[in-house]
Structures are given as C-alpha cells and as structure tokens.
C-alpha cells in the first residue's frame, strides 16, 4: 500500500503553523474602551486578575463586562480563553463561537477555537478552523512552503482532493526540486483516478531522490495494482524494505506483488505479517483476497468483515462478502 498522510486527528505541526502568529500570550485584544464605560471598568479588573493568575475571578469580571456590552467580540474572546484555561471547554467553545459571530476576521479567536474543538474531539470543526486560518495567512504569504503543505494536508483530510492537488502543484512550481512534493502529488492523483500522472510524478520523485523508500514502495504498489512491471515492482519493494524491514505498508506491497504473480503462499506469509504490524482495511482486504484465492473461505470472510469494521465505506469488500456468501449457499 502507498505511503501517505492518514486521516486522523489534526497534527501538532499543522496547529503550530496555524497558530504561530496567534499565540495567546501576544494576542490579548484591544480593550473595548469606546463602547461602554462601566463594561470597560470590569474589563480592566478582569485583565489585571488574569495577569495575577486569578482566572476564575477574572471570569467573573468578564461576565459582568459582557452583561453590559454583549456585542463585544473582545470580551467574549477573553472569556473563551479563560474558560479554556480552567478546562471548561464547552463554555470556552460557546464564547469563542460568539466572538467569531461578532468578528469573523478575528484569527486569534479562530485559532483558539480550533484548539478547543480538537480537545473536544470535534476534529472536523477543528480542521475547518485551521483551514480558514491558513487560507487567510496564504493571502499575504502565498509562497510560504509550510503553509502550502499544511493546507494540502488539511484539504486531504477533508477529502477535498482537488484543492490538495492544487497546493502541491503550486509547491512544485516554486520548489521544483522538492522530491516529497512529487510523491504526495502522485498519490493524490491516484486517488482521483489519474494513475498515469500518478506514476509519472512518483517516478520524478525517485529521479530526484532515488533512495526514498516511500517513493520506492509507492511506485511498486501502483505497478502491482495495475499488474504491470511486476519484476521491477518486486525490486523496488525489496529496496524499500531494506531501509525499513518492519514497515507494515511496505510488507503489504510485497505481499500484494506476490499475489499478482500468483505466488499465493508467499503472499499469505507477507500479508499475515503485515496485519500484525498495521491495522489497515487495505491490508485486511488484500489478505482476504489471498485467503479466497487459496480456498480458505471462512478466513477470507472473517478478515474482510474486519476490514469493513475498520472502514465501513469500503464497498468493494461488501461485494466480495456477498459473492462469497452466495457461493457458499
């Protein structure tokens, strides 16, 4: 199976890039001096209490300020920040969402809200906020490679393959020797169905860095998927495994090549090892295919069902299970 980002929780690196210029210590917003004198007095008391570390007392003063000036994004932002500091994340979320309703361009509130969403395991909401932040940063710094890569990963995690592809194409246009960009672009293109372009980009990645095991493995896997150049695929897969012998994805690729060569016993040996290392529905499906080809139908059904449990969206497995169950009847 090819190497790529997994669609899991928001990575620390993305959060760091998104928040680099919005650290809380440097983003206390301007006091709402012009809005309401009494509210301003409470706000000043709250800010002083914050500095003294009396967070709960500060919250009380911010709440009083908010009663007198309910439309102040500044007050709601600071309330949200303090609720986050005492780990009252639901209240933090409520206040920060209100701050953004009042002031959508407030990137400090957006970043803090993304962190709160992540802490609440609301990953899709967090992804959306990080994306909006980085898109805004990209407007003023369009050639920042860190922002481009982070945006590409965020788009991928949100299944927006087209936008992710555009980011990597832009990255290549400004960094034409970045071998990782060609690799990631190739894998994204394969997910969009453009296998020829995918292979061409992975070959370019290997041209720039012939010893990259991720690129070696990915090209080997795509050859195996197409049932072409299997000897070259075998050579590439073994090269990758020399650098990382216990990589479950690399072992899966080798097992899948053996399967395409009709070497079922070798395929089964490698794929059974791969599933011990890496819980992945692709590997489970491959192993089920081998079991089925060897006539081990109960084992095939069991492992395919496990694959569906891990990834219920894999419709290809449902068809295999149905076909095998009909065959058994």
Automatic annotation (TrEMBL):
TPR repeat positions: 73-106, 145-178, 179-212, 281-314
Top-level taxon in the UniProt lineage: Bacteria
UniProt cross-references to PROSITE patterns, sorted A to Z: TPR, TPR_REGION
Key words, A-Z: Repeat, TPR repeat
Pfam families with a match to the protein in the record: TPR_11 (PF13414), TPR_8 (PF13181)
PANTHER family per record: LIPOPOLYSACCHARIDE ASSEMBLY PROTEIN B, TPR REPEAT-CONTAINING PROTEIN PA4667
Identification of the protein by name: Uncharacterized protein
Organism field: Candidatus Ghiorseimicrobium undicola
């Amino acid at each position: 199976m090819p190497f790529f980002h997994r669609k899991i929780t928001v990575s620390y690196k993305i959060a760091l890039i998104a928040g680099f210029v919005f650290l809380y210590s440097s983003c206390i917003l301007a006091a709402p001096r012009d809005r309401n004198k009494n509210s301003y007095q409470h706000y000043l008391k709250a800010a002083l209490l914050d500095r003294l570390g009396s967070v709960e007392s500060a919250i009380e003063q911010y709440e009083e300020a908010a009663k007198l000036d309910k439309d102040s994004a500044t007050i709601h932002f600071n309330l949200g920040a303090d609720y986050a500091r005492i780990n009252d994340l639901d209240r933090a979320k409520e206040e920060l969402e209100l701050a953004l309703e009042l002031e959508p361009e407030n990137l400090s509130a957006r970043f803090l809200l993304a962190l709160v969403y992540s802490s609440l395991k609301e990953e899709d909401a967090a992804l959306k906020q990080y994306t909006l932040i980085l898109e805004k940063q990209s407007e003023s710094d369009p050639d920042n490679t860190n922002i481009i890569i982070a945006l590409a990963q965020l788009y991928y995690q949100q299944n927006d393959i087209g936008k992710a592809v555009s980011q990597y194409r832009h990255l290549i246009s400004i960094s034409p020797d970045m071998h990782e960009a060609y690799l990631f672009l190739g894998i994204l293109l394969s997910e969009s169905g453009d296998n020829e372009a995918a292979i061409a980009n992975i070959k370019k990645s290997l041209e720039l860095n012939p010893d990259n095991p991720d690129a070696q493995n990915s090209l080997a896997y795509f050859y195996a998927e197409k049932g072409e150049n299997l000897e070259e695929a075998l050579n590439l897969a073994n090269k990758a495994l020399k650098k990382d012998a216990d990589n479950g994805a690399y072992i899966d690729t080798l097992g899948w090549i053996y399967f395409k060569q009709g070497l079922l016993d070798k395929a089964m040996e490698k794929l059974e090892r791969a599933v011990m290392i890496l819980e992945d529905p692709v590997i489970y499906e491959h192993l089920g295919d081998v079991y089925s080809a060897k006539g081990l139908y109960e084992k095939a059904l069991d492992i395919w069902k496990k694959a569906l449990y891990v990834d219920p969206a894999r419709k290809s497995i449902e068809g295999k299970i149905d076909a095998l169950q009909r065959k058994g009847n």
